[in-house]
Amino acid sequence: MITSRDIKVACLAVFVTLALVAVADQTPVLHSAVFDWGAMVATPTDVGSMRSVYRGPTPTLDELEMHITTLNPGVASHPPHHHPNEELVLIKEGNVETLSQGKWVKAGPGSIIFNASNEEHSLKNSGTTPATYFVVNWKTDKTPKGGQ
């Protein structure tokens, strides 16, 4: 026979479990920070290497994602694609071509590429040396749901 005490203990256990799951799923909000180039580890990829910087919420963004890619000469980072989030690509070194509004456009050191939500884009290293670029993606409550 189940007593009222058993029900109270079960309800308390469910409440504590749900509270712990809610706390465990929360990613800390990023506040002002400095990301040191020397502390970032370059992970090899099929097309060069990548340094992960940050992925998580900020006080005003649902998600901020930053990484740095070094792309080998003559290769593309990936086939043309689109995604709901917007992104900036800042060219540090090397020469690239980017697919923007259906046209391939050259971009060199210091250039900034903006890829709008759900617009097809791509990037390839058109030079003879590695190309390194910073990628900054963000999502807000206005970012469309779904996509790639």
What is the structure about, briefly put?
With 148 residues, this protein is mainly β.
Task: Please write the string of helix (H) and strand (E) elements.
Answer: HEEEEEEEEE
Report helical residue fraction. 10-25%
Mean pLDDT: 89
Q: From the helix content, strand content and strand pairing, which structural class follows?
A: mainly beta
Looking at the structure, the CATH topology of the domain at 37-139 is: Jelly Rolls
The biggest beta sheet reads: 6 strands, antiparallel
Mind telling me the C-alpha Rg?
22 Å
CATH homologous group name of the domain at 37-139: Jelly Rolls
End-to-end CA span: 53 Å
The global form is elongated
According to DSSP, the number of beta strands is 9
Please, could you describe this protein's structure?
This protein is mainly β. The protein has a domain at 37-139: Jelly Rolls (Sandwich), CATH 2.60.120.10. It contains 1 helix and 9 strands. The strands form 2 sheets. It has a 6-stranded antiparallel beta sheet with strand order 1-2-3-9-4-7, with no helix packed on it. The chain has a 3-stranded antiparallel beta sheet with strand order 6-5-8, with no helix packed on it. The longest helix has 21 residues, at 4-24.
